[in-house]
Specification:
The complex is a heterodimer of chains A (550) and B (251). Chain A is 39% helix and 15% strand. Chain A has 15 helices and 18 strands. Chain A has helices at residues 2-8, 15-34, 67-84, 150-157, 204-212, 228-232, 242-254, 271-277, 279-297, 351-372, 386-405, 411-425, 432-452, 464-488, 512-515, and strands at 49-50, 60-61, 94-102, 105-113, 119-123, 127-129, 162-163, 168-174, 197-201, 225-226, 266-269, 306-315, 318-319, 332-334, 409-410, 453-454, 517-522, 531-536. In chain A, the strands form 6 sheets. Chain A has a 5-stranded antiparallel beta sheet with strand order 8-12-11-9-10. In chain A, strands 13-7-17-18 form a 4-stranded antiparallel beta sheet. In chain A, strands 3-4-5 form a 3-stranded antiparallel beta sheet. The longest helix of chain A is centred in the C-terminal third of the chain and has 25 residues, at 464-488. Chain A starts with a helix and ends in a 14-residue tail after the last strand. Chain B is of the alpha+beta class and 251 residues long. Chain B folds into 2 domains: 3-111, Ubiquitin-like (UB roll), CATH 3.10.20; 117-130 and 145-246, Fumarate Reductase Iron-sulfur Protein, Chain B, domain 2, CATH 1.10.1060.10. In chain B, a hairpin with a 2-residue loop joins strand 3 and strand 4. Chain B is elongated and about 60 Å long. The chains are: A alpha+beta (550), B alpha+beta (251). The interface between A and B is large, with 69 and 69 residues.
């Protein structure tokens, strides 16, 4: 697993962190089982395993097609236990507005109560950000609607370095986009690639007919189908890592072989598996996913192949942290997707929950003690310190400014425009020219936003438009940093594919001599270019090779 | 398609609410129900009016945040889905759609279609967990679990805590939700240890919060987006009765 994860991340992850992740991964399963997470069992009562993208052995524990959700519910129940015992106090429906730094140390946060609009000051000896990733910068992603990058962005603007912002993951198995009113994309679990075969028509004329609706997938003969992943990567076949599978789908669709009305989709076909294993087995493995697909697309995936297309799913980049998960601001820690640490340039399936649980259960409880040990003599931090008052004042000023613009364009219209700029220029294929263009476009859009956005309502009530506006304001800055990072990385690795740097077969071409580093960006002020620091990546145990899934 | 929407508007928990009519035009059959509401909200914002507030997050039927009565039915007319998975192809051109927030005393309205469901959290905090600390846990395979039990526990664990069972019930009973959680743990050896205390604590909390009792109409199962079976309620009743009879402690 250690090796798979380093290789899957295209040798851009910190080796020591990944080693630790692999070391504690078994404890995570033990912990979750003890919490009552109903993992699948074999008939003998032992835990069942299955395979996943990027791994050649079956080493993934699972709970039907909803493993992530069940792990989350397990953590939620464990947290609820502590809330019930009053050892943890929970503040729900709050958005982080700022991180408060006192004498160079993170000492608290400012939040907005989403029900009352009240701006609250909370103090602590240390602050942990576990606020997830920033994939919603693309507007359309598989992330939940409220998922946002504001917390880590505020931390960045207060001095925490941002690691590898351009490393984003495009997931290959999502339901294709269908209209411009669409609000989000739906992920079909990667587990589907265990039994589904991915293909497009071999002949261009067949693809054209399918796009017009005059030909059906089932009518295409076996020899006229191009199982392009099996063709290009015979060793891993349909189970290549996400970045490779996504890029291969894009390549076929760009060449005109895509299916569906838009031509931006490929087939994921279960016919062979149903023939081999029976419909019952497929239903027991993926029943809920098939149902979900049918409800959205209105087509029965037992009868017709599913249509899928890549979509933004995860951000490997995040706040830069050291081995102890501490950011460059002492006392400020970042865990899970919010940090950059374990996945390099591409995350493998099942690794996000693993990292989140590892950071929370088995890393932070030990590493944070090193910091807190020196703080034992320091009494509770007061929230009426000038730093808190200033941060609160700044937050209120920001909200007032947004509410006063009263322009003519909705917040969503800006988010949608930003998403398109990001998808077209900072998405699956990147070039210096398009990235440079993206930076200008984002800057222009940001200026326009602050002149012409319309935020309805007031601050002293439930106001979803204001919530969105605050988040989009941050996304409009974050997108630019992502483009800058992508522009400065003159190589292709994992999810970061610079079209200028590829092998003759179209695979990502790394440059280990000049780019085996983590880029850690430092904020230098508004409209000032940020400064990039480099953390060299040194591999002591693993031989760095070109990634090969053939 | 063009539609008339009759939507419950209520400025805050204390304010008096009312139905307001809205028109939406050219809605695609492919759009989801919440996307249709997005379109309405965009048009309201453009006109300078306040958009309709509703809870939503994952928009793929797993977070349990969206909570609407659509034409009087929790999560709308289709079976086995949440509101966000409802697509407009289930409606006809010219139709009037009535949209309301969950109606139940323990789910007070926050604004418009948003309700506060933290009472569910309180029930979980009362006992919906296994009391294990983090770390020092024995190997997960040290206690084999019969596959049947693991599968039944998984069926119950599929509950997303959306509250449709409460909304569907004429008594606003939370029995399906509570019994799903009780069953998940009671079926697994890890949860069995505390089973007697857990069921009593969770039922007591449920009663305290003002949820009603079960009168076996099974409306909850019919409306549950995850199709959780009412046999979980039977299991909880057995657990509860036997706990009351033989438990060392009662709550």
């Amino acid at each position: 697993m250690f090796y798979d994860t380093i290789k899957g991340g295209d040798y851009r992850a910190r080796e020591a962190n990944v080693f630790r992740l692999a070391e504690v991964s078994n404890s995570i399963i033990d912990q979750c089982v003890a919490q009552g997470v109903p993992f699948a069992r074999e008939y003998g009562g032992l835990l069942d395993n299955r395979s996943f993208g990027g791994a050649q052995v079956s080493r993934t524990f699972y709970a039907r097609g909803q493993t992530g959700q069940q792990l989350l519910l397990g953590a939620y129940s464990a947290l609820s236990k502590e809330i019930g015992k009053k050892t943890v106090k929970m503040y729900t429906r709050r958005d982080l507005m700022d991180v408060v730094i006192v004498d160079g140390l993170a000492r608290g946060i400012i939040v907005r109560n989403l029900i009352t609009g009240e701006i609250e000051r909370h103090s602590a000896h240390a602050v942990v950000l576990a606020t997830g990733g920033y994939a919603n910068v693309f507007f359309l992603s598989t992330n939940a609607m409220s998922s946002n990058g504001s917390a880590i962005w505020k931390a960045y603007k207060k001095g925490a370095f941002f690691g590898n912002p351009c490393f984003t993951q495009i997931h290959p198995t999502c339901i294709p986009v269908h209209g411009d009113y669409q609000s989000k994309l739906t992920l079909m679990s990667e587990s589907l690639r265990n039994d589904g075969r991915i293909w497009v028509p071999k002949k261009l004329e067949d693809a054209k007919k399918i796009q017009k609706g005059t030909l059906k997938a089932k009518e295409i003969k076996e020899e006229d189908r191009d199982y392009y992943l099996e063709r290009r990567y015979p060793a891993f076949g349909n189970l290549v890592p996400r970045d490779v599978a996504s890029r291969a789908a894009k390549e076929r669709c760009d060449a005109g072989f895509g299916v569906g009305k838009t031509g931006l989709a490929v087939y994921l076909d279960f016919a062979d598996s149903i023939k081999r294993l029976g419909k019952n087995v497929i239903e027991s493995r993926y029943g809920n996913l098939f149902q979900m697909y049918e409800k959205i697309v209105d087509e029965n995936p037992y009868e017709n192949p599913m249509m899928i297309y890549p979509a933004v799913h995860y951000t490997m980049g995040g706040i830069w942290v050291n081995y102890e998960l501490q950011t460059t601001i002492p006392g400020l820690f970042a865990a899970g997707e919010a940090n950059f640490s374990d996945h390099g340039a591409n995350r493998l399936g099942a690794s996000a929950l693993m990292q989140g649980l590892s950071d929370g259960y088995f890393v932070l409880p030990y590493t944070i003690q090193n910091y807190l040990a020196n703080q034992i003599q320091i009494p509770a931090i007061k929230t009426d310190l000038p730093e808190f008052l200033q941060a609160e004042k700044d937050t209120k000023a920001l909200i007032d400014k947004l509410l006063k613009i009263n322009g003519k364009n909705t917040v969503d219209s800006y988010h949608r425009k930003l998403g398109l700029i990001m998808w077209d220029n900072v998405g699956m294929g990147r070039t210096a020219e398009r990235l440079t263009k993206a930076i200008t476009l984002i800057q222009e859009l940001r200026t326009d936003f602050w002149k012409n956005v319309k935020v309805t309502g007031t601050n002293d009530q439930v106001n979803p438009e204001l919530e969105k506006a605050l988040r989009v304001a941050d996304f409009l800055e974050m997108g630019e940093l992502m483009a800058r990072d992508a522009l400065s990385r003159l190589e292709s690795c994992g999810g970061h594919f610079r079209e200028e740097y590829q092998t003759p077969e179209g695979e990502a071409l790394r440059d280990d001599k000049d780019f085996a580093f983590v880029s850690a960006w430092e904020y230098k002020g508004e409209n000032v270019e940020p400064e990039m620091h480099k953390e060299p990546l040194v591999f002591e145990f693993i031989e760095v090779k070109q990634r090969n899934y053939k | 398609m063009d539609l008339t929407l009759k939507i419950w508007r209520q400025a805050s928990a204390k304010a008096k609410g009312q139905f307001v009519n809205y028109q939406v035009q050219n809605i695609s059959a492919e759009a989801s129900f919440l996307e249709m509401l997005d379109i309405l909200n965009e048009s309201l914002v453009a006109k300078g009016e306040e958009p309709v507030a509703f809870d939503h997050d994952c928009r793929e039927g797993i977070c349990g945040a969206c909570s609407l009565y659509i034409n009087g039915r929790p999560h709308g007319p289709d079976r086995g889905i949440t509101t966000c998975q409802m697509h407009m192809r289930n409606f006809k051109h010219g139709e009037t759609i009535i949209i309301e927030p969950w109606r139940a005393k323990p789910f007070p309205v926050i604004k418009d279609l948003m309700v506060d469901r933290s009472s569910f959290d309180e029930i979980i905090q009362a006992g919906g967990f296994v009391s294990v600390r983090t770390g020092g846990i024995p190997d997960a395979n040290s206690i084999p679990i019969p596959r049947r039990n693991a599968e039944l526990a998984m069926d119950a664990a599929a509950c997303i805590g959306c509250g449709a069972c409460v909304a569907a019930c004429k008594n606003a009973s939370a029995m399906l939700f509570v019994s799903a959680k009780v069953s998940q743990f009671a079926l697994l050896p890890q949860g069995r240890v505390e089973a007697q205390e857990r069921v009593q604590r969770m039922v007591a909390k449920m009663d305290e919060l003002g949820f009603g009792n079960c009168t076996n109409t099974y409306a909850c199962e019919a409306e549950c987006p995850k199709e959780i079976s009412v046999s979980n309620i039977a299991r909880m009743n057995r657990e509860f009765l036997s706990a009351k009879l033989i438990s060392h402690k009662t709550f």
